[in-house]
Each structure stands twice: as structure tokens, then as C-alpha cells.
Fold this protein.
Amino acid sequence: MSAPPFDLLYTREAERVLGDLRSKKQYEPKLKKVRKALRLLEQVGPRHPGLHSHDYQSVPGPGGVTLWESYVENKTPSAWRIWWVYGPEDGQITVVTIGPHP
């Protein structure tokens, strides 16, 4: 694990969600929040207090690695989150998916 800034990589699932958000004007407010959270994750790192990053213990990450969760929204019904893992290389974060908190 290295210090920020991080290179963000995206799974196909995460790219699909971002594409869906970009495709409709009604999703612009949500896309703006997602972009801000991704920018903080990349430039400041997961320790930024607004992201409230923590390990997500309900589900293991790909290959059994620790899956992390960072906030896009808070105190909102079905608040959105970013789920991610460190790597595959040092200085990288792979965004697994983005969406409403289950």
C-alpha cells in the first residue's frame, strides 16, 4: 500500500455503472457526487475523512483480498458507495463497483 495519489483502475462492472450514469441527464447529480468521491480517492486517498473508507466485511474481494467501501453519499436513503481493492500493483486502486448501499 502506497501513499496518494493513486492510479484508479476499473472493473467492467464499475465502467458499466459509470456509463449508465453518463447516459441519462437525470443521473447528472449522482454522477457529479461519484466523480467527486473518485477524485478524492485518487488524489487524497482513502483516508480522506469524507470518504469514511472501511473494510467491507460482508463480502470478500476478488481472490479473497480485503474489499473496501467508501462513501459517495451519507445520510441519504440508499446512499451510494464505491467498493474497491488495493492493487494489483503498488500505488493502484481497483474500483470493483459503484452503487447504492445494500
User: Anything to note?
Assistant: The chain has one domain: 7-100. The CA atoms of residues 18 and 94 lie 14 Å apart. The chain has a mean pLDDT of 93.
